[in-house]
Design goal:
- This protein has 590 residues and is an alpha+beta fold.
- The protein has a domain of 362 residues: Beta-lactamase (3-Layer(aba) Sandwich), CATH 3.40.710.
- It has 19 helices and 21 strands.
- Helix 10 packs across helix 13.
- It is elongated, with a radius of gyration of 36 Å.
- The protein starts with a helix and ends in a 7-residue tail after the last helix.
């Protein structure tokens, strides 16, 4: 075989082999194109594009004068795509230095899962820190803007507002109840990314903007709320009480102007406080109201026609053997119907109870809202404790009118007393005045009062205030003298209830609930205050007029002029000095 022939054969063999190889390659490419194109295209799409969530701004919570009680501000969070980070060790060291984190912790996050394409490095850092991380220009490590909740007044109205978690989900209070409306709706951006996973272009056709949350406008007034919180804190500290609650209401509309509890907490740092501090005792805790409930049964007795103003009842000189009942610290003989309230005679009220009977007493409790939730828009409300009529006994007849054998929340007491102040009309309490959309336009208007029922007649309500409850504060023998305010005619009722000992299940001789209900001005009530101080130290003081009365006075003294309610009487310097001097020496028995 000649060389030329050999070369031709080799060339043919090589050409044939190359052709076969090319044909096989073409076939493989055709197979890839036909069978795997969709998967490869999806993989390319995933590598070249990112879907970035756009978080909405959580709506604000505002007081009645549109002052921010709870708001949101922008922060940054740091995340990584571990597959894109080329040098995890170097990246962990540089990022850790700025974030104040252990580089080994960051390295563990970057290398823990080889398949991971997303991992949070640190949530909720300042905007300045986020920008510093961005300037490092490390492929695979980026920042995203988020919102964080802040409460500019710290603990102010904490039990009403509640708090939010790290994902801005409502955990307590209004933050929880209206979480969907406050949270808004998340958007999404579909972006083209470079090899370092940094966005370089946004697809407008696949862009969904976020819808920011709505804003809640409350009936709460920050100034009155602050006054209530300060007053209850001072009283609980002075008398070493276990807890305390205050509710301030506009009786004409049912609007809650303040709702304060002690102990309290700062929702900015809610997880550093015991859970018990976060409980809104104004609506969750129930207590025996003691003598503070006497006005309700006095009204029922008037309407039933079993008593009339000026009628004299014999109060057994301090001990009524038939009912096994004392008048604490007093030996009253004959008292008029009005004096029974002014001096808070248990025996006098018990005798009215025997005239009313169990059925009408039960109807009285229902008419004033006891035993039922008020319907306030706050989570965790208790209905209180009112036993069914069939469980009442002959003893109940004389005990119910003096605030035993049933329990109520501070809010229930405030709304019941507001019914007397509002011509007998029981209203549903309002905590929410309205809702604004994300642009600040009114979305929901809730300013109108919501009547629940007519607890008592208009005439009865006015007369019980003017002829009895004003005397509780103004009369020299009244148990509520500690709430006198120069220039204003205040009406009220004291209460000192013995609690049940949790161990012996009997009436305690050391555990008391000190209460005070007050309203002003008497001629046209605009503000009602309910104060309940739980288990003050008996050795310091425990009567409602002594412990709770001054709290109501402090709140009314600030709220009335602040709301533009002028004094109804002129006050001389001599009168003012007399009242101040007298208040410092007050000792009451209820």
């Amino acid at each position: 075989m000649t060389p030329s022939t050999y070369q031709r054969r080799i060339a043919i063999i090589l050409t044939t082999a190359l052709a076969v190889m090319l044909a096989a390659l073409a076939g493989h490419l055709l197979y890839i194109q036909m069978e795997s194109a969709e998967g490869l295209a999806a993989k390319a799409e995933k590598q070249q594009h990112m879907r970035i969530p756009i978080r909405p701004v959580r709506g604000n919570i505002l007081d009645s004068r549109l002052r921010v009680l709870g708001g949101s501000c922008e922060i940054h969070s740091i995340f990584a795509d571990p597959k894109v980070v080329r040098d995890p060790n170097a990246a962990a060291t540089r990022v850790g230095r700025l974030l104040g984190m252990d580089p080994n912790e960051i390295l563990s996050l970057l290398t823990h899962d080889p398949k991971s394409r997303f991992v949070w490095i640190k949530r909720r850092v300042s905007v300045e820190t986020g920008e510093a991380i961005h300037r490092l220009n490390i492929p695979g490590i980026a920042t995203v803007a988020e919102g964080t909740r802040f409460y500019p007044n710290a603990a102010l109205a904490a039990h009403i507002l509640g708090c939010v978690g790290i994902e801005e989900q409502g955990l307590d209070g209004l933050e929880k109840l209206f979480d969907d409306r406050l949270r808004g709706r998340e958007g999404e951006a579909y972006v083209l990314a470079d090899r370092s996973r940094r966005p370089i272009w946004t697809d407008a056709d696949h862009f969904t903007p976020a819808e920011d949350g709505h804003h809640l406008v409350l009936t709460i007034d920050a100034t009155i709320q602050g006054a209530a919180e300060q007053a209850v804190t001072e009283a609980c500290t002075k008398y070493r009480a276990k807890s305390g609650s205050v509710v301030v209401v506009d009786p004409q509309t049912g609007a809650i102007l303040a709702m304060a509890n002690w102990p309290t907490y700062d929702p900015n740092r809610y997880n550093t406080y015991p859970v018990d501090s976060r409980r809104n005792r104004c609506i969750t805790d129930t207590f025996p109201p003691g003598s503070s409930c006497k006005p309700f049964f006095a009204c029922a007795a008037l309407e039933a026609g079993v008593v009339h103003f000026g009628e004299v009842l014999f109060c057994e000189n301090g001990f009524w053997a038939a009912a096994k009942m004392h008048d604490a610290g007093h030996s009253y003989g004959n008292l008029t119907f009005e004096e029974i309230l002014v001096r808070s005679s248990n025996i006098g009220m018990a005798k009215l109870g025997t005239r009313l009977g169990n059925e009408r007493e039960h109807e009285c409790l229902a008419a004033f809202g006891f035993g039922h939730k008020t319907g306030v828009w706050l989570p965790g409300e208790s209905a209180g404790v009112v036993f069914s009529l069939k469980r009442w006994t002959s003893l109940s007849t004389t005990r119910i009118p003096i605030g035993q054998e049933f329990a109520a929340t501070p809010l229930q007491m405030a709304m019941a007393f507001s019914a007397i102040a509002n011509r007998g009309k029981l209203l549903r309490p309002k905590i929410l005045r309205g809702v604004l959309d994300s642009r600040g336009q009114v979305a929901v208007d809730l300013s109108e009062p919501e009547p629940v029922g007519q607890a008592i007649d208009v005439k009865t309500a006015r007369e019980i205030i003017n002829r009895a409850l004003v005397g509780v504060v103004e009369d020299e023998h009244g148990t509520g003298k500690s709430c006198r305010i120069p220039g204003y005619k205040v009406f009220g009722k004291t209460g000192t209830a013995q609690k049940i000992d949790p161990e012996t299940k009997t009436i305690s001789k050391t555990r008391y609930m000190s209460a005070f209900l007050a309203g002003a001005p008497a001629e046209n009530p605009q503000v009602v205050v309910c104060v309940m101080i739980n288990e003050p130290d008996k050795s310091i003081g425990y009567y409602g007029g002594t412990v709770a009365g001054p709290v109501a006075k402090k709140i009314l003294e600030q709220a009335l002029p602040y709301l533009g309610i002028p004094p109804s009487e002129s006050v001389t310097e001599q009168d003012s000095a007399r009242l101040v001097s007298h208040d410092t020496n007050i000792r009451t028995t209820d």
